[in-house]
Amino acid sequence: SVSAAFREHLRRLGLQDFPCGLGSWNKSRFNAGTSSHGGRLGLEADPAGQEEAVRLGEESPEVLMELLSDRHSPWALPPDCSPQDQHLREMAVLTPELIHSSNIFQVFRSLRIIGKGVEEVDEGLLQLQQLEELILSANQISRITSANLPRMLKVLELCCNAVADLQDLCSQPPPELQHLGLGYNRLRGPLQDKYLTADFWPNLVSLDLSFNNFTDLLGLVSQLSSLQKLRVLVLQGNPLALIPTYRGFLVDSLPKLSILDDIHIGPDERHQFHGLARQPELIRSEARVVVSVGEVKGIPDSSAQQQLEVGSEAPVITYSYHVTYEF
């Protein structure tokens, strides 16, 4: 589940291990509880005693922070870690008494769990109430229940999973979602087209449906046209992208679109395809594919092997090969 992967992520951050957390390396700076006079939590009353404790084998906050920031340190985070991971570890050094579940959950604005074999988006994710970006690419998710998604979510990326049905995702979708990434999944039109409307995604700006199995261009466009805030659309890799008038029809049908299949739509292109949306008869449910074979390896060249003399009665051997293309 996502929750299990998140817990493993926190474990790898080592928030309770040196140089973070509470331990023999900083025990003189923190008490077990608040002082009887209402002073700051964990500060020793005697600064001289604190300095002596540090001198006798503990580490100062500055030294501990340096161990986190120095890229040559064995405790440094990898370069691709998020800023919030670094922030959590700094909290674990400077104020380790604040590192507990409720505070950690409030820190996370972005969560990236990529290629961890996640199959379920469970309700434990709701503890991350401030989460705005959830990246779950390259996992094994086939269905996702929107009731388990934080309501503040603005980015949901599910690229390279096994999602085949959007019904559960659209039951209670996050109302502020701006990007929905569903590329490289198992969505099949026209059954899923009805879930791609403003009724479910009123604030959607970016939509990635690439490399699925959408085939009905007219039906899909009729649903997408309700997404008034949509500016970025990716449909490449679907069978409908092979239709000759595919790009022109989309450009003219969705006048507010700025980018289609990672290519900017300029005024010249929009003018070129003006009026095409009113000619649906030009869209045919067929496509032409031309396959060119540039080089074939592993097949003997019979012409080079047979150097027959003129008038020779030696038998001639003919080779033939059958090539099959599977789509």
From TrEMBL:
Coiled coil: none annotated. GO terms for cellular component: cytoplasm. Keywords: Leucine-rich repeat, Repeat. Transmembrane segments: none annotated. It comes from the Eukaryota. PANTHER family: LEUCINE-RICH REPEAT-CONTAINING PROTEIN 51, NISCHARIN RELATED. This is LRC43 protein. It comes from Cochlearius cochlearius (Boat-billed heron).
